[in-house]
Amino acid sequence: MTSTLRYSVLRRTCCLCTVGQVVYTLPEAEEVLGVTPRADEVYLLRQIKEHDQVEVYDVITYRLQRRLTVPDLLGFSDMTSCEHYRCVYVADRIVECIHRLDVQGAATRWAMNDKPAGLSVNAAHNVLVTCPDVRKIKEFSSHGDLVRELTLPDDVIKPCHAIQTRSGEFIVCHGDVVDAVHRVCKMSVDGDDIVQSHGGQPGSDTGQYNVPVHLAVDNNESVFVVDVFNRRVTLLSPTLGYIRQVVSYDDLKGQPSRLYLDTQRRRLYVTDNEWNYDEEDDYTAGRVVVFSV
To answer: Which secondary-structure segment (H or E) carries 146?
Structure first.
């Protein structure tokens, strides 16, 4: 191995082994159900029924810029963005639709005919919608034309989120509270076969999850996994081998449920919501913690 190549490998390894550091915490208010950077801004989706639901912050100063209303938004479950089409997408599990919000704030939507959960955008700039109840990934154009839908194998129970790699394979996380298997899987390009997986029986060990619910993939195709009830974010290699915890239990006040990786700035946005088990049995406060990775 040449000295240049050895340095490149060591540099990449050191980057992966660096523990995420808290850069900033966005303001605490109602529960946060989605977060996504777009251009020079960060969009937050909050559980606010009487007011504007989307808060927009500056990506550098983290100052609030404006609030946006998504008409008839009732049961939001996730948010993502697309730089190519300069828009933001919001999943609505009650209306069973996807809302599209452009940079001017104009909102449109299209029907899903199934309850949507996680959202992502692939290399073709299409929207991938994960539908847990029917074990499907549905791919739509930016304006809601159905491109294709994939049905996942029977043992991929309650898939929460899916991301498509540059090679066309899918990274999928699955497993709800009552399910026997909680894991992250790499699926074939047609979604029929599991190529690699990480996890299994739910638990708290390094090779286990307790509701893996959301994913992000970096430029090297390493995978970040939100683990709700273990209160952590786990980093996996492109072949789904365990590397380390990026965010640990002590880094958060409550439970993480969504994340977004800004690969350009190396910032990881993690939602952090507190649950009141004693009185209201509901989320009582939410924030977004920004980590450098």
So the answer is: strand 146-151
- Report the share of the chain in percent with pLDDT over 70: 89
Which of 84, 132, 87 lies closest to 112, judged by CA?
A: 132
Residues 195/188, Cβ–Cβ less than 8 Å: yes
- For the stretch 22-60, what's the b/e string if a residue is b when 16 or more beta carbons lie within 10 angstroms of its beta carbon? ebeebeeebbbbbbbbbeebbbbbbeeeeeebbbbbebe
Look up residue 141 and give its two tokens: 């154009």
Amino acid, single-letter form, for residue 70: V
Q: How far apart are CA 139 and CA 122, in angstroms?
A: 9
Distance CA 191, CA 213 (A): 18
pLDDT of amino acid 5? 33
Rounded to two decimals, what is the model's pTM? 0.90
**Could you give the CA distance from residue 233 to residue 240 in angstroms, rounded to a whole number?**
14
Q: CA–CA separation, 201 vs 211, rounded Å?
A: 11
CB neighbourhood size of 12 (10 A): 12
